[in-house]
Amino acid sequence: MPRGRSRAKRSESSSASDDEDDRNASPEQLASSPSLKYVPGSTGKQARARAKLLRDAPRRRREEADGRRSARRRSPSLSGSVDGDAQSEVSAQSSKKERDELARLRALLERAALSERDAERVRVELRRERTDDDRVDKLDAETFVSRVRANEASLRDAVRVTSSESTVWPTGRRGERRGGATNASEVEKRPVEAFDALPQEVWARVFGMLSFRDSVRLAATCKSLWVLSQREHVRDALCESMFGKPRASSEIKDSELVSSFLSSERWFGDLRTGEVSTPKPVHFGVGPSFVRGLIADETTVTSFDREKVKIWYHGAGIRGDDDAGGRLATLMVEKRSTATRGLTALAVNQSSIVCGDDGGRLRIWDSDTLEYMQKRAHAIPDDRAISALCGIPATSLVVCASAMHPSLEIWDTDEAASVTSVSLRDLISDERAHGVTCMGMFGGNSYGRLRSHVAATSRMWVGSTFQKVVGVDLNRAAFVDTLSLPESYENAEINALSVNGPLITAVVKDIGAVMWDRRGMPQEQIVAIFESPFATFEGVSEQSSCVDLEDFALFMSNPGDAGVALFDVRKTFGPPRKTERWLSTACTHPPVSILRPRRRTRGFSEEVSVGCFARVPGAPGAVIVAPDSANSEARCSIFSHKNELLTNEEIDSMTAAEMEDSWRSRRARKGKPPVPKTRGRHPKRPGLYHQ
What we know:
Blueprint: H1 3-24, H2 27-31, H3 44-55, H4 57-73, H5 76-81, H6 84-114, H7 116-121, E1 123-127, E2 136-140, H8 141-149, E3 158-162, E4 167-169, H9 194-197, H10 200-209, H11 212-219, H12 223-229, H13 232-243, H14 247-250, H15 254-268, E5 283-286, E6 293-296, E7 300-304, E8 308-313, E9 327-332, E10 343-348, E11 352-357, E12 361-366, E13 372-378, E14 388-391, E15 397-402, E16 405-412, E17 417-423, E18 436-440, E19 459-464, E20 468-473, E21 478-484, E22 494-500, E23 503-508, E24 512-517, E25 526-530, E26 546-549, E27 553-557, E28 564-568, H16 570-573, E29 587-589, E30 593-595, E31 598-601, E32 604-607, E33 610-615, E34 623-627, E35 636-639, H17 648-653, H18 666-669
Helix pairs in contact: 4-6, 10-13, 11-12
């Protein structure tokens, strides 16, 4: 046999015998050797046993400490009957249970941080520092979360977390009630007639305070309440809560009542009169890092910055299987040495994606192949910057304008050629340079199957720098109507425009959103004013004001606002698609909801300011909100009727490993993000731009 092989065989047999002796030797025998120094008469096995003992000493000390802590929590009889190995096993199980409990506490506090209603009801009991008494400090969940984020407290300081009714953490006592109340299954429950518990007048007031959906659910509990819910005065109370007038005076049908509630429930919910809700986004921290403007359809978002256009999923689509923030394509534009602001406007028509730049040129891409069609389509004379674009639905036309040139240029994107021009010089009364700042039309500047081309008209409305909103007939290529701002709005700026049938809304700087209704007389009179709840931003921003109008709600934001203000327009105009108008004088309305974008910080989230937004009409009715340029690292937030808050079952199934990345310390997160950024490849979306 070769000498090397025999030497290896002897070493293997020697190590195997050493391991067997280590297993047979007791800890007392191994601990009798004081050091690793050579002792005359000792063997190699004893030296290796001493080395192994010293190497495993830290682990043994930790196990003994865990065993002592668990023994103190157990009864004396149990601690006296368990030997050393059993104590180690029990301590390991208790430490794992403690980690799981902390993971569930993290998930519970994250859920409370995302819901203001839960944050108010959840109370955290903390140990008092440097005291020997058993008293505790009670804090609400939001305050405790802020202390954890500021490293002023830790999760182990929480002794108990309770809601308004029961203990929700530790989870081992989740079903217990405070004050020693018994379990609900032990209490005898007997059916009670509704009118025996409360008088009929009280139930009628309860129905008047509930939403339409909750009133239907309450009426289904017994026949007496169902009969009461069909009474005329109960129906009038429900109608008045939504439309501001009783049903008898406005002649609203039950079908109109139901359709109006279902269309607005995802944004208003159980909102009471005078309340302002702040719903949380379904997704946040998705999409590009900086957005100057965007347009959204049922599945995707098309956004642009200074040098490129990006197409990505918003995650609230009708299919429900698209990843929020998943990128589809990036459309690049060649750089110019003289460019100061780059791309300035975006529009989409039936066949093309169009961008305007600061040199008066149109950048055109084919919507099917995403091929760069035209690089030098000079649309605005004298190289004026393009300030507004609007795609005409069901056509290949796009209308472009500049704030420094008083004309509208209509282009055919398939031919990359100008069709005609509409001059507004006859409406200008002074010699200063005027132009168009924004434009909009019913069904225009959008794409997707939910925005019907049948309801679109040929009339376009444009906001000008000479304080007028001008109606332009595209068939005749001439302006046909004008809406003037009041004289009290001196030197007011029209920054955004939205059209929904006969309603025209314009965002006026320092005023808010003003609305005209073309169904009434006089048509030039402002019928409603929606003031912004935020202070005016005085600085210059690359992003622009945004406004969007639905049948029941109005969305408005300015760069630097704390959120997108949502207004209820039903109390002014009644049910949608009505021929008559309820109010004939201008009235001011407060917002009913504010959509605040958020960003992630140490497992929690905090609010940031708004830069711009885009709305997806119909179902699912999502709103994509981009942060301002100062908080571009926050990325976009997606608001929808979907709810991503964790349920109790999901909290119970979560482990410490699943929450590790979200709750790492600030020092551990420094250098690179906890989750590496991945960009998957998505298939091309057929037929999303046109059918």
